[in-house]
Design brief:
Elements: E1 2-4, E2 13-15, H1 17-26, H2 30-41, H3 45-57, H4 65-76, H5 82-89, H6 96-108, H7 113-120, E3 133-138, H8 145-156, E4 159-162, H9 164-174, H10 182-196, H11 200-212, E5 216-222, H12 225-234, E6 238-244, H13 247-260, H14 265-276, H15 286-291, E7 295-298, H16 305-324, H17 333-345, E8 356-360, E9 366-371, H18 389-399, H19 428-432, H20 446-452, E10 463-466, H21 472-481, E11 485-488, H22 495-503, E12 507-510, E13 513-514, H23 519-533
Parallel strand pairs: 3-5, 3-6, 4-5, 6-7, 10-11, 11-12
Antiparallel strand pairs: 1-2, 7-13, 8-9, 8-10
Helix pairs in contact: 1-6, 2-3, 2-6, 5-6, 8-16, 9-10, 11-12, 21-22
C-alpha cells in the first residue's frame, strides 16, 4: 500500500495497488485519485469511476458506469459479461475500493472471457442484461404510472424501481423530518440531474435493479430524455410505456394529497407545467418522453384505484404478450394510422417539433396526411432567419414584463431571460402564452395540411390521427371540415382547444397502442408466425 497526501497537512490516505494501477491506466494524478479512493471507500462506486474519468477527460461531465464497461469490452474485442463480474466483485472479501478496481483490472487485462471464467469460476449468480425484460413508465403525474407499476408487480412478477426514490432520499438527508411537496422534489431532481447528469436517476435505479437479480423489471417516474436513452442503452429489451390521462381527472386524483399539505389547484398547475417541459436542461421533459414512448396506454376513465389497477393490468397484458412474442397479433387500424402519422412527421423541417397527421375513412384506409412546415414560398426557419421566429416574438413580448409583478407570487419580476420563469419557479411563458406562442408560428400545421389535401371530400365519417393535440386554430378548422373524431398522443392538451372541441361535439380520444418507434419490431413476429403456419408442405 502506498501512502500519499492530497495537500500539505492532510491526513495520509492509503491507496491499494489496484487504485494506483487504475489511475496510471487512466493517466490521472495520484493527487486526484485520493478523492476517488475516499468516495469508493464509502461505497460510492458510480461517482468514484465517473470522477476518475472526468479528471482524465478534463470535462465537467463523465460517462455513466455502464458506458465505461462497454468501452472496456470493445477495447479487448471480447463479450465478457460485465454485469456478472460486477455482482461477483461485490461479494469479494475486500474493502469496497479494492472490489471496484479489481473488477476493472479484470476487465482491462488481456484475455477477456477467459479471465471472467477463471475469476468467477464460471458461475453466473444473475442473468445477463440481454435476458432482462425492462419496462419504463412515463406520463404526467396522476396519470396512473405507479398504479400500473404496482399492477405489474402483483400480477406479472415484475420488480418495481422508482427513479424518484433517489430524489426522495436526497431530500430526506438534507431535510430530515420535513415532508416535501412536489415542487420541492422537482427542485431536488433538477439539482441531481444538473450536477450528476440527466441519466443519473436512471442509473441509480438500474443499479438497484441489477443487484436484485430480477429478470423482469419496471422503472417508474421517468421524466427526462437522458433517462430514456440510458435505459435503452443498458437494456436491449427495454420498452417505454406512456400513460395518458386528462388534466381534470389527474387533479381529481391528486387533490387530497395537495390539500393535505395546504396546496391547491393553482399549485397543481404550476407543478404540472414544470413536469410538461422545462426548456432548459436538466428540467423535466414529460411531454418529450411521451412522444418518445414505444407503447401508449389510456387511463382517463374515472375509477377507484383498485379498479384502475385491474383495467391497466388487462391492457398491459396484451402488450407484454406482444413484447415477449408469446401472444403476437396483427396490428390494428389505429396502430397503422398513428404510425403513418409519425412517419409523415419526419418530413418536417421545424426547429422545435415535428408533428404528423393522417385522415382515414371508416374502414381505416388512408385519405390524406400532413406535417408541420412553413408555406412553400418560405424557407425553413433554420435557413432563414436562422432561429425560431415564434420563440423570437415570444421573447420580445416577455421582455416587456420586466419591472412588473409575478401573477403567481406577487414578487417583482427582475429578470425575464430564458426560460422566462419568476424566482418562485412560476412559468411566465406558460401563463401569458398558454399556446406557447403557436399563434405566431408561420408554419402550416400538420392537421391543416392534411385537411387541405382532402379537396372537398366528405369527412363526417372519417377520423383524424395526430401526434399531438390540435391547437385552437386547428380545432376551428377541424370543426369546419366536418370531422367528428380525433385520436391524439399528447399528455398536456391545450385547454382552450379541449373546451372548443367539446362544445362542438367533436370526439377527442387518447391514442392507445404501439407507436411507430417499435411498430416493425413488435409486429414482425406475427408475420413470421403466419409464414411458418401457412407454408406449403414440403414434397
Amino acid at each position: 500500500m502506498d501512502v500519499i497526501r492530497q495537500r500539505p497537512g492532510d491526513v495520509p490516505i492509503r491507496l491499494c495497488k489496484e487504485t494506483l494501477a487504475l489511475h496510471r491506466h487512466l493517466g490521472t494524478s495520484q493527487r486526484s485519485c485520493c478523492y476517488t479512493d475516499k468516495l469508493a471507500s464509502q461505497g460510492d462506486y458510480r461517482r468514484t469511476l465517473s470522477l476518475a474519468l472526468r479528471q482524465r477527460a478534463g470535462s465537467g461531465t463523465a460517462p455513466p458506469l455502464s458506458r465505461v464497461f462497454r468501452t472496456a469490452r470493445r477495447s479487448q474485442d471480447k463479450r465478457a459479461d460485465v454485469r456478472r463480474l460486477f455482482c461477483w466483485a461485490g461479494r469479494l472479501d475486500r474493502p469496497p475500493v479494492e472490489r471496484l478496481f479489481y473488477l476493472l483490472a479484470v476487465l482491462t487485462k488481456p484475455g477477456g472471457d477467459d479471465n471472467v471464467a477463471k475469476t468467477t469460476g464460471g458461475e453466473e449468480p444473475v442473468p445477463s442484461l440481454s435476458s432482462v425484460l425492462a419496462l419504463g413508465l412515463t406520463g404526467s403525474f396522476g396519470s396512473g404510472c405507479t398504479t400500473l407499476g404496482n399492477a405489474l408487480f402483483t400480477s406479472r412478477d415484475f420488480r418495481l424501481f422508482s427513479l424518484s426514490k433517489t430524489v426522495k432520499s436526497q431530500w430526506d438527508r438534507e431535510n430530515p423530518g420535513i415532508p416535501p411537496d412536489r415542487g420541492k422534489l422537482q427542485d431536488v431532481g433538477n439539482m441531481l440531474a444538473g450536477t450528476e447528469g440527466t441519466d443519473y436517476l436512471a442509473e441509480c435505479a438500474a443499479d438497484e435493479a441489477d443487484n436484485s437479480g430480477a429478470t423482469k423489471v419496471v422503472f417508474d417516474s421517468i421524466k427526462r430524455e437522458g433517462e430514456i436513452n440510458y435505459l435503452r442503452a443498458r437494456y436491449p429489451s427495454f420498452y417505454l410505456v406512456a400513460v395518458q390521462c386528462s388534466r381534470d381527472e389527474r387533479w381529481r386524483r391528486v387533490r387530497p394529497t395537495y390539500e393535505r399539505v395546504g396546496l391547491g389547484e393553482s399549485d397543481f398547475d404550476v407543478h404540472d407545467a414544470r413536469d410538461q417541459i422545462e426548456e432548459v436542461s436538466p428540467g423535466q421533459q414529460v411531454s418529450l418522453c411521451v412522444d418518445d414512448a414505444d407503447i401508449v396506454v389510456d387511463n382517463t376513465e374515472r375509477r377507484s384505484q383498485t379498479a384502475a389497477g385491474q383495467v391497466l393490468r388487462s391492457r398491459i397484458d396484451r402488450y407484454i404478450g406482444l413484447i415477449t412474442g408469446s401472444e403476437p397479433y396483427k396490428p390494428r387500424a389505429q396502430d397503422i394510422a398513428m404510425t403513418v402519422a409519425y412517419t409523415e412527421a419526419e418530413w418536417s423541417d421545424c426547429i422545435k417539433r415535428h408533428v404528423g397527421a393522417t385522415i382515414v375513412d371508416e374502414d381505416g384506409s388512408l385519405i390524406s396526411s400532413g406535417f408541420n412546415q412553413n408555406p412553400a414560398t418560405m424557407k425553413p426557419c433554420y435557413e432563414e432567419p436562422g432561429y425560431c421566429r415564434k420563440d423570437s416574438l415570444v421573447a420580445e413580448r416577455l421582455e416587456a414584463l420586466l419591472g412588473t409583478y409575478c401573477p403567481h407570487c406577487g414578487k417583482l419580476i427582475e429578470s425575464v431571460n430564458n426560460p422566462f420563469r419568476c424566482s418562485c419557479g412560476y412559468s411566465l411563458k406558460s401563463h401569458y402564452f398558454s399556446d406557447h406562442g403557436v399563434r405566431w408560428c408561420p408554419a402550416v400545421h400538420a392537421e391543416e395540411r392534411a385537411i387541405a389535401r382532402v379537396r372537398g371530400r366528405d369527412l363526417s365519417a372519417a377520423t383524424l390521427y395526430t401526434t399531438t393535440f390540435p391547437c385552437l386554430n386547428c380545432a376551428k378548422l377541424i370543426t369546419d371540415s366536418g370531422l367528428k373524431k380525433i385520436v391524439y398522443v399528447e399528455p398536456y392538451p391545450e385547454r382552450e382547444s379541449v373546451r372548443f372541441l367539446a362544445e362542438n361535439r367533436i370526439d377527442t380520444i387518447p391514442f392507445e397502442g404501439v407507436k411507430a418507434r417499435s411498430f416493425h419490431k413488435l409486429f414482425k413476429p406475427y408475420r413470421e408466425q403466419m409464414e411458418v403456419r401457412y407454408r406449403l408442405p414440403e414434397s
